[in-house]
Input
Amino acid sequence: MLIFVVFYFLLIRPQQKKLKEHKAMLEALRRGDKVVTGGGIVGTVVKVGADEDVTVEIAEGVRVRVVRSTITGVLAKTEPAKAEAIDAGSLKK
Output
């Protein structure tokens, strides 16, 4: 019984915590985030699909679709876009 308790605190619990953090990171992905895939490809998220795929731009004009779960890390998070109030009088035609 003591061995099970030691294994729980040294192996099982940290692994569950890491899995939960990875799942939260994947759910928080949004356009503009710089990510690393499981294959080591670094790119910028262009589109987050409703299902399990994410479109990542790895070079200018080169976009690939990857499965969301293969993203291993987020290098840089982007700030959400701020809605700017547009004055009707300030628009020029």
